[in-house]
Design brief:
By secondary structure, the protein is α/β, with parallel strands linked by helices. The chain folds into five domains: about 55 residues; about 80 residues, Immunoglobulin-like; about 130 residues, Chitobiase, domain 2, CATH 3.30.379; about 230 residues, Rossmann fold (3-Layer(aba) Sandwich); about 80 residues, Pdz3 Domain (Roll), CATH 2.30.42.10. It contains 22 helices and 26 strands. The strands form five sheets. A seven-stranded mixed beta sheet has the order 8-7-9-11-10-12-13. It has a six-stranded parallel beta sheet with strand order 17-16-18-15-19-20, with helices on both faces. Strands 21, 22, 23, 24, 25 and 26 form a six-stranded antiparallel beta sheet that branches. The longest helix has 25 residues. The relative contact order is 0.08.
């Protein structure tokens, strides 16, 4: 066999595993029978070590398909309240699935001691409180595995045995060195695994299965993890979390040749508990076990952050310090003039020290790079540039926010790189997922996509849950779109360096984008570092003063900037023409006589058919100017009539 059976429960589960040939009811009965047998084995192990009980629960998770009535538990809403000289820990024990009557063991960690207690949980959610003389800094549910329950994602170990003994396995076939993996493929297929080419595997397939990826150069490894970093050895294994289902694991196997694979397979069954392995000529030269949590852990306290004010630096000090970095990420809140002013000052300061700089901008999409190049070179004017780059359609924010940066780049002939992916692709991904993209659309997306950063995933989940669209959209698709966005911008940065060898030696790039793409390095910085290893710094404007959120945080007072005047009308161009839907209070257009339902056809004699046409025209106006607006108005039985209005901006 490819890997030995680790417990009697595992052998039992293989006999009871659900079959696709059975009906849904029969499969459910099989799952329930398996759960009963596992529970009996678990009860028999009550006097054994907590490690053995946990392993039984791990084995159960790998075989169960989620239909059995085994509860999961979680801790929510945990906080510590100061009550006079005492502290009160308040939290909820939540049962996931069908609620059962449970005595839940809870361990409270205090400075120098830990206190154990148990609390009855017989509903979906139970409020718990307990007082202490000092404040607890951590609460752990069932850390000794006394309950037969589902494990939380953070408790599941990443081990080879979890992959090869799973109830459903997909093998992603190698794209090179195929002979080296031939025996492995046959062994796994004999065990019931399904093999397929990586390009044909959909995310929905991967979500439901344990996956074995053959070859570190396999496109599926790049598609899920950006790049498979493996030990240098004749044969190596790394086990990683399945980005689409943390209950399942994925193993990447890499062999130099057929002989190395055959030699490693002879002893591989002895290393099922490991998550990283390396062999040479069949001899194990490296092994490690991935850390996972013991029990369901909730941390309660964070150390306060202290700023030493005497150590505060000026912007000039910052520019001096970062002048040798290869890539500078300068974050922004898009609508803050002060943030863009800081970005420009950093660009000017670095340009004074090194003329070989480039500016990467989130605001422009890759297909419109030529418009940027033509504008910077002086071949087209600003108005033509804004039209050809489709700025007002694709970014839509006030161009005056970015104009000083583009003006400086044009004056100094500094290359500006369009970083972003086409908006239509991210919007489609956010709605229907990566699997829905056409072959033509897939040509625009990066080969390397890393979905394995769980800290970033949790941050994005928190953002997603706080917005109204969380009720209408899938977080999984939202997450895919965000990673696609980040990875494309990272790829664009890396491509510029690769295509310009002189920049590889002494060039720099200043990247301007929303701060969320830079915080903690999760979005773009670490992904670009994965691609090229270039040193970088993250500078945030008025960001969170949190450890590792950024290398530097710039603090400055707000500033005002010039904004283009507006028609002050709610418009839609989704159907034929630009239709007026309504007006905000004190609208200049409404005062001029324009009504809801009118269709705007021209401004100052220039035809307009899209909202971006209006924005472009108004960009070159100032407050107090008169704009002549022509519109069509429907009349009862008389058809449409063209009317001209004079709107004072």
């Amino acid at each position: 066999m490819f890997c030995r059976l680790f417990t009697s429960a595992l052998f039992l589960s293989m006999l009871l595993v659900a079959s696709p040939s059975l009906s849904a009811d029969d499969n459910r009965n099989v799952e329930q029978d398996m759960a009963v047998q596992f529970k009996k084995l678990f009860e028999d192990a009550k006097k054994s070590s907590w490690e053995k009980r946990k392993q039984l629960l791990v084995d159960f998770e790998d075989k169960d398909n989620g239909t059995s009535d085994i509860p999961g538990i979680a801790i929510e809403g945990a906080k510590v309240i100061r009550s006079g000289k005492r502290y009160e820990a308040v939290f909820r024990i939540v049962q996931k699935g069908k609620a059962q009557s449970l005595e839940v063991p809870v361990t409270f960690y205090l400075k120098g001691e830990k206190v154990k207690a148990s609390f009855k949980s017989d509903n979906a959610s139970v409020e718990i409180s307990k007082q202490f003389d000092s404040g607890p800094y951590k609460i752990v549910l069932d850390e000794d595995y006394e309950l037969f329950r589902r494990l939380s994602d953070s408790e599941l170990p990443l081990s080879l045995s979890r992959v090869v003994e799973s109830r459903k396995i997909i093998v992603a076939l190698p794209v090179s060195n195929k002979e080296a993996y031939a025996d492995i493929v046959e062994m796994l297929k004999a065990k019931g695994a399904q093999d397929n080419e990586s390009a044909k595997l959909k995310d929905s397939d991967i979500k439901d299965s344990a996956v074995i990826i053959l070859g570190k150069d396999n496109p599926l490894a790049s598609r899920l993890y950006g790049k498979a970093v493996m030990p240098e050895a004749g044969f190596s294994v790394i086990v990683k979390e399945n980005p689409w289902n943390p209950k399942r694991a994925i193993a990447i196997l890499d062999a130099k040749n057929k002989e190395e694979a055959e030699a490693a397979l002879k002893t591989l069954s002895e290393y099922g508990q490991y998550s990283l392995l390396a062999f040479d000529h069949g001899n194990n030269i490296f092994k490690s076990i991935n850390d996972n949590e013991r029990g369901i852990v909730m941390d309660l306290k964070e150390e306060p952050v202290v700023i030493e004010t005497s150590a505060l630096k000026t912007l000039n000090d910052l520019i001096e310090k970062i002048s040798k970095k290869k890539i500078l990420y300068v974050g922004e809140a898009h609508d803050r003039f002060s943030h863009h002013d800081i970005q420009l000052k950093i660009i000017e300061g670095l340009h004074a020290k090194n003329k070989k700089i480039a500016i990467g901008m989130e605001m422009f999409q890759r297909p419109y790079q030529k418009a940027l190049d033509d504008y910077i070179s002086g071949d087209i004017d600003e108005k033509e540039f804004l039209k050809k780059s489709e700025y007002f359609k694709r970014w839509s924010l006030e161009y005056n926010l970015y104009k000083p940066i583009l003006d400086f780049a044009r004056a100094e002939k500094i290359p500006v790189v369009a970083l972003n992916i086409t908006r239509e692709i991210t919007e489609k991904t956010a709605k229907t997922g990566l699997d829905s993209l056409t072959d033509e659309e897939r040509k625009e997306i990066p080969v390397e996509l890393d979905f394995s950063d769980n800290e970033y995933r949790e941050r994005l989940k928190d953002i997603f849950d706080k917005h109204d669209y969380s009720k209408m959209r899938s977080f999984e698709f939202f997450y895919q779109a965000q990673i696609l966005w980040d990875e494309t911008m990272s790829m664009s940065i890396d491509e510029y360096f690769r295509k310009n060898p002189d920049f590889q030696s002494n060039g720099q790039m200043i990247v301007v984008a929303g701060g969320g793409h830079f915080e903690y390095g999760h979005g773009i910085p670490k992904r670009t570092f994965r691609r090229n290893g270039y040193d970088y710094s993250v500078i945030m404007n008025e960001g969170s003063i949190e450890k590792d959120a950024a290398d530097y945080v710039v603090l400055r007072s707000p500033m005002e900037g010039i904004s283009s005047p507006k028609l002050m009308a709610l418009l839609s161009d989704k159907n034929d023409g630009i239709k007026v839907l309504g007006f905000p209070e004190n609208s200049v257009s409404e005062k001029a006589g324009i009504k809801a339902g009118d269709k705007i056809t021209s401004l100052d004699g220039s035809a307009v058919s899209k909202i971006e046409d209006i924005k472009l025209h108004l960009f070159y106006k100032k407050s107090g100017d008169i704009v002549k607006v022509k519109a069509l108005r429907k009349r009862f039985l008389l058809g449409e009539k063209e009317i001209e209005f004079e709107v004072k901006l």
